Amino acid sequence: MTGVRVLVCDDEQLLREALVRLVGAAGDLTVVGAVGDGASAVEAAAEHEPDVVLMDIRLPGMDGIEATRRIVARGGPSRVLILTTYDLDSYVYAGLQAGASGFLLKDAPGERIRDGIRIVASGQSVLAPEATTRMIQALQPMLPTDEDRALLEAAGRLTEREREVCELIAQGLSNDEIAAHLVISRYTVKVHVSSILTKLDLPDRIHVLISWSRLRGLRPSRPSQRPTAPD
């Protein structure tokens, strides 16, 4: 991927400048703007139409959750990757509900942040491993709802390979990691993911992660086997 346009939003000037340097150091990423509050992020996203907005949560005035909601609701090309110091479940859920495509912690290694930007720009989703683990643990004990029962029925239409892909998505693996694990091409993984989203009527990979994690608590998991040959 080349030419990913990035808008940085963080209220701390030193950190904002550090993120600009971090992103700008990658040849395939370009910073198109840097702002310090949510309202400015919404305005800058409308003006520059970046591929990815790196969004802090705690901002003066309009917070990052509301800014994310407005940027996504606008319907432009911009996707939001939340980058925050605050590793709190409430922020993860609120950010995802607002339409964010990912959630990473600010103390993540620089290359993980740059990779997260690339993943989100490509139309995929990314979650900090810490948040993924706790989300799964929190979802499993819940009692089934009507929505869960409908999801169970829809999951019955998945192929065995699609269930394997769902399980790996629920573990937080990217398309490239799933391809390596299952010994199939990245294109084949994308085809499987597209089919899964259609069959489960879900908008993106993060919702697959959430839904499949819920399903784990509703029925016994089906063991997957590592294939001996590519699809």
Question: Can you offer a commentary on this structure?
Answer:
The protein is an alpha/beta fold. The protein is built from eleven helices and six strands. Strands 2-1-3-4-5-6 form a six-stranded parallel β-sheet, with helices on both faces. β5, α5 and β6 form a beta-alpha-beta unit. InterPro entries: CheY-like_superfamily, NreC/VraR/RcsB-like_REC, Sig_transdc_resp-reg_receiver, Tscrpt_reg_LuxR_C, WalR-like. This is Response regulator transcription factor. It holds the Pfam family GerE.
Task: Please sum up the structure shown.
This protein is of the alpha/beta class. The protein has helices at residues 13-24, 38-48, 64-73, 89-98, 110-121, 129-139, 146-155, 160-170, 175-182, 186-200, 205-216, and strands at residues 4-9, 29-35, 52-55, 79-84, 102-105, 126-127.
Draw up the topology in text.
Elements: E1 4-9, H1 13-24, E2 29-35, H2 38-48, E3 52-55, H3 64-73, E4 79-84, H4 89-98, E5 102-105, H5 110-121, E6 126-127, H6 129-139, H7 146-155, H8 160-170, H9 175-182, H10 186-200, H11 205-216
Parallel strand pairs: 1-2, 1-3, 3-4, 4-5, 5-6
